[in-house]
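Have a think about this chain, C-alpha cells included, and walk me through the fold.
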Amino acid sequence: MNSAMGLLNLLLSDPLTFVLVAIPLLYSIILHELAHGWVAYRMGDQTAKLQGRLSLNPLRHLDPIGTLMLFLFGFGWAKPVPVSFENLHDKRKGLIFVSAAGIVANMLLAFIALLLDQFLSPSPSGLLAPVLYYLAQINIMLAAFNLIPIPPLDGSKILMGFASAKFQYFLLRLEPFGFFIIIGLLYLGALDPLIAFFRWSILALIHLLLP
C-alpha cells in the first residue's frame, strides 16, 4: 500500500510526473486483461476476439472504479475480458493458464521496469526514475492481489484448475459474494499478511532472474 500513498503524494507534489506515471500504470491493468483474452484465444476460445477485447485501446478495457482503486490503494482492475472456458481445448489447463496469464503479464512488466532501473542505476535521471519505480511496485501489487484465492480473483480460478469438482462448485457459489468478502477482509487487514507474502515471493523470483 506504500506505493499507493506514494502515488497520492506524487499527484500533490508533481502533477506532471503523476500524469506520465499514470499512462504505464493504466496499461498495466489493460495488459493484465489482454493477457487473459490472448491465452484463451490461443487455447481455443474466440469470445474476447469477437467482442473486440484483444485490443490496446483503453476505452475497451478501463473500469472507472477499478482505475480509481488503482491510484488510491495500489491495486485495481479493468473490465474483465470475457472467456468461455467451455470452448477451451482443455478446460482444466485453461482455468490455470488463462487465469495465470494476467498475473504473469504484471510480473513481466515489473521485471522489465526493475531491469531498466538496474541498467540505468545508480541514479536514473529526470522523470524516468519515478515511472520505473511505480511501474514495478504497482505491477507487483497487482500480481500479488490477484493471487488471492477468493473469487472472482485469478487466484481462485487457478485453484479451481487443481481442485475437485465439489470444491470448484463451492468457489462458483461463493463468487457473487466474493467482492464484498474481499473488501471486508481488506478493511479488517486480514489479507495484509497474505498479500505481503505474495509480494515478497514475486519480488524474490524477479531478483533471481535479474542479471
